Automatic annotation (TrEMBL):
This is Dehydrogenase. Belongs to the Gfo/Idh/MocA family. Residues 8-126 form the Gfo/Idh/MocA-like oxidoreductase N-terminal domain. Keywords: Oxidoreductase. SUPFAM superfamilies: Glyceraldehyde-3-phosphate dehydrogenase-like, C-terminal domain, NAD(P)-binding Rossmann-fold domains. The lineage of its organism: Bacteria, Bacillati, Actinomycetota, Actinomycetes, Propionibacteriales. PANTHER family: CONSERVED EXPRESSED OXIDOREDUCTASE (EUROFUNG), CONSERVED EXPRESSED OXIDOREDUCTASE (EUROFUNG)-RELATED. It comes from the Bacteria. InterPro entries: Gfo/Idh/MocA-like_OxRdtase_N, Gfo/Idh/MocA_oxidoreduct, NAD(P)-bd_dom_sf.
Length: 341
């Protein structure tokens, strides 16, 4: 069998997730050659460069845009930067795997939605955890039993603990809050899981709330909502950042004949049905298995094995739209055209 030539990818954004998850996945993959690294920060470039010898290193992502020998880019940049970069790379004809959320508002995302269809199809959105087998298993239980609907789903997503010993982390999360509350940033993942589990159904936002536990924060750091689906399923979502202590982080699904709990950090899955509890635990670390699968899907896209990226722009926009509707209902963040009605 002929050996396939690796796809040539550059990593743009060498921050926390770029260096902790994307670069390791790219280096693990035999299907990928890391040809470029870009970040305006000299410290970030210095941290990344020795890990990918042979990759060209750039201070300005524009140098990678349209460059010969770069089939695609992974954008691990803040969301207020990602949208514009994704647009430039797609216009240049390159493939893009862009971190979530794809934008900080649907208004901002419009620049992507108006690109020609053929370019939009080259965009994969980093809704990383939808690639996890645990979600596929949950979907199967919802479709075929024992978790038949209507369901009560509770998604309690509490992470980014306030840690006095890690001021860089606090500064990064505080900066992120300037561009929207946790429901906008974490909601991207959770609303994509819900869309995946509930076959793309779109809910009504029946109620939403927000709390700013530290008055110095730019957005409320605790947010929640009640979502109602046509099928009778109700979802209670909560998101929380930057408190010294955090409640449990998990997704639970209760139906007439079963109860499932997905651990928010490890994706360890338990199902209780017919009086018996079964545990499904993947031995491979969640970050590693999800980033590897996500990258595998992107390689297939670049190689032309898939016609469009999944999750792509439609999935990224759907999650963003729901996040915005919740934020507007709770009036936690003023979004143009999305003020409380
Ligand atoms: N998929 C996931 O599981 C997951 C997990 C964590 C974070 N994220 C997302 O990843 C993104 C980045 O998060 P992070 O925590 O790594 O942030 P970070 O601030 O640690 O890293 C962002 C990096 O992008 C760089 N950057 C900024 N502007 C740039 C530009 N124009 N060109 C090139 N580089 C630029 C910054 O210098 C920084 O090094 C966010 O959108 C976040 O929501 C996703």
């Amino acid at each position: 069998m002929a050996v396939e030539v690796p796809v040539r990818l550059a990593l743009v954004g060498l921050g926390a997730i770029g260096l902790a998850a994307h670069l390791p996945a790219m280096l693990r993959s035999e299907a990928v050659q890391v040809v470029g690294l870009a970040d305006p920060s000299p410290e970030r470039r210095a941290a990344a460069a020795p890990r990918a010898p042979g990759a060209a290193v750039y201070a300005d992502a524009a140098e990678v845009c349209g460059a010969a020998g770069v089939d695609g880019v992974v954008l691990a940049t803040p969301p207020w930067v990602t949208t514009g970069l994704a647009e430039q790379f797609l216009r240049a004809g390159q493939f893009v795997l862009a971190e979530k959320p794809i934008a900080v508002s649907t208004a901002d995302a419009r620049k992507l939605a108006t690109l020609p269809d053929e370019r939009q199809r080259r965009l994969q959105v980093g809704l990383t955890y939808r690639h996890d087998p645990a979600l596929a298993r949950l979907r199967e239980w919802i479709r075929d039993g024992p978790l038949h609907g209507p369901l009560l789903i509770r998604a309690h997503i509490y992470d980014e603990r306030l840690n006095a010993k890690d001021p860089d982390h606090s500064a990064r999360i505080r900066q992120t809050l300037r561009h929207g509350p946790p429901v906008l940033h974490e909601g991207a993942h959770v609303f994509d899981w819900l869309a995946f589990l509930l076959d793309g159904a779109s809910p009504r936002v029946s109620d939403a709330w927000s709390v700013r536990s530290d008055p110095g924060l730019a957005s409320p750091n605790l947010n929640g909502a009640r979502l109602t689906y046509r099928c009778g399923t109700n979802v209670l979502v909560e998101f929380g950042w930057l408190t010294s202590e955090l409640p449990r982080c998990e997704l639970s699904i209760l139906g007439q004949h079963g109860y499932a709990v997905l651990d928010g950090f490890t994706f360890r899955l338990t199902l209780t049905a017919d009086g018996e509890t079964k545990v499904y635990d993947d031995p491979v670390d969640r970050t590693e298995r999800c980033f590897d699968r996500q990258l595998g899907a992107f390689v297939d896209l670049v190689r032309g094995r898939s016609d469009r990226a999944v999750p792509g722009l439609p999935e990224g926009l759907a999650a963003l739209d729901l996040s915005e509707r919740i934020a507007a209902t709770a009036s936690m963040f003023t979004i143009p055209g999305r003020e409380r009605t």
